[in-house]
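Margin note from the TA: students keep mixing up input and output lines. Inputs are the sequences; the output is the structure of the whole complex. Example:
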Amino acid sequence: GAGVSQTPSNKVTEKGKYVELRCDPISGHTALYWYRQSLGQGPEFLIYFQGTGAADDSGLPNDRFFAVRPEGSVSTLKIQRTERGDSAVYLCASSLTSGPGQPQHFGDGTRLSIL
Amino acid sequence: EDQVTQSPEALRLQEGESSSLNCSYTVSGLRGLFWYRQDPGKGPEFLFTLYSAGEEKEKERLKATLTKKESFLHITAPKPEDSATYLCAVHNSGNEKLTFGTGTRLTIIP
């Protein structure tokens, strides 16, 4: 079946601009996660949704970052007033449910470059 | 705070030369330890979940083992297509996030 889909695959924008990154999870998966990965590092947690609600947003670096999942499926990560330090690969993952040992399945990410 | 340390950072092996990758962890209440494979330009691909010390899981040329402080990913008679970055992550009892290590970049030379 289809995996996690992320669009766009690449995004280049200027410092100060607003960007939206989209994630389509695996059909039927109730839990959705956003991570950020810098070169040579492992993914770093940003936010977790169970259904429509953000159950844990402790990884969001500041209030320029916001994410929504209005119908419990597709999610959008929004970044305002982008800075060069926001450049990274933004990964989305989904799992069938939350809970012990549930594997998270990742998309191929959006590579964001802030000029 | 959860911590995951992977070693070595990079490993080059000849085709057929077996070896092991290490993942040391500190976590408050382990709910699961995960191994992922990541190819360049791709997202992490799930390999294994281990839940408790003594557990082992195998898939083709890979075997993952778990103790109370570390996990090993053993690769037996590797092939060039096994070249990738291997990531280890832990899931603790207090939240739903995964905490990842920085990975081991494995290169298998034909």
